[in-house]
Amino acid sequence: MERLVLFGATGSIGGSALDVIRKFPERFELAGVSGWGNIPRLAEIIGEFRPKVVCLREENPDFTAGYPDVEFLSGGGGLEDLAALDDADTAIMAIAGTAGLYPSLAAIRSGKRLLTANKESIVCAGDIIMREAAAYGNELIPLDSEHNAVFNLLTRFDPGTVAEITLTASGGPFRDKPVDDSVTLEQVLDHPTWEMGQYITVNSATLMNKGFEVIEAHHLFGMGYDQIKVVIHPQSLVHGMVRGSDGTLYMSASPSDMRIPISLAMFFPETPPETNPKLELPGVSLDFREPDLERFPLLKLAYDAGREGGVMPASLNAANETVVNAFLEGKVRFDKIPELVMKALDGVANVPTPDLETIMETDWRVRVRCGELIGL
Ligand code: NAD
Ligand code: MG
To answer: Which domains does the chain have, with CATH numbers?
Structure first.
């Protein structure tokens, strides 16, 4: 029996992870969850999975009084305590945003295997996370579909025999449509192939998500930016590719369903005992094309920030999170997002090998500056 702690259980990835746990009750048991503000959903999860420890955003005596057998934690400190729980071997990180950083590190330091969808923590502090995971001898397995595909393909290669990797991008709702000042929130959230949380869905529409994924891949796989390619693939059926040093391209394909990469990660290095939904090829066409960096400048900006390294990726992440949240609140137009993010990065002084404190300090400064720019 494998004991798990699940962070962000009430979200989109969290829900998919719960589906996998529900399907294999003899293999996985939920020791703890964090659910943050969504109390009704958390009540359902506690009722169904009976975790012993639950972390909330803040103390809530009216709610917790109903569960005398559950230990409740709260706030950021609570997330770190949950990550360090002795009673679990594996942490699944499905929190959205930078809030995933400290609990990810706490899980690594407590010796847990970390299965993570939280790209923001790797974008901001990839060097530190990878160094700590290596120092503690932990397995770190990506849940992000593209990275999970590449991760699994790479296990088939000998060191030194990989030429490059490719991440696919659906291209989002504006792949073939112009972006102008009339774009609505509803159009942005109407993703052609994936059902996801709001923040990542907006990032898919600007290709910022793919940019973050390039930086994520750089850290996870130790690849140079020239070796990490992005290709637009509208069907979202091929998720990742690896080109061997002989030139052959290996592709990993499956339906767009996050339960597939999540189950592969949860069973790794074994294979899930039941087949996942399969891609049947007849009638399917697979298209690939070059991304348009002029129409989607945030993808290029991510490559630049990644190559500069230091605090630049964390700055990009902080600026984007601030601007996109303002867009979600109706305070910024969609077509203004790239320009505002670029402006917020102007004048950020890089620090080549920052510690965690410097990263978080920069994150805070960029958010403040960005808020001023937007007039928040
Ligand atoms: P979501 O918005 O659906 O869920 C986010 C979860 O995080 C919720 O449980 C929420 O309660 C929790 N949360 C939010 N703010 C928090 C905070 N400050 N502290 C603690 N918990 C907090 O998001 P999602 O789509 O499930 O994405 C989660 C992560 O997975 C993100 O990093 C995203 O980039 C990544 N990801 C998602 C998908 C997808 O298909 N949804 C695919 C690849 C990667
Ligand atoms: Mg992805």
So the answer is: 2-142 (3.40.50.720), 144-307 (no CATH), 309-376 (1.10.1740.10)
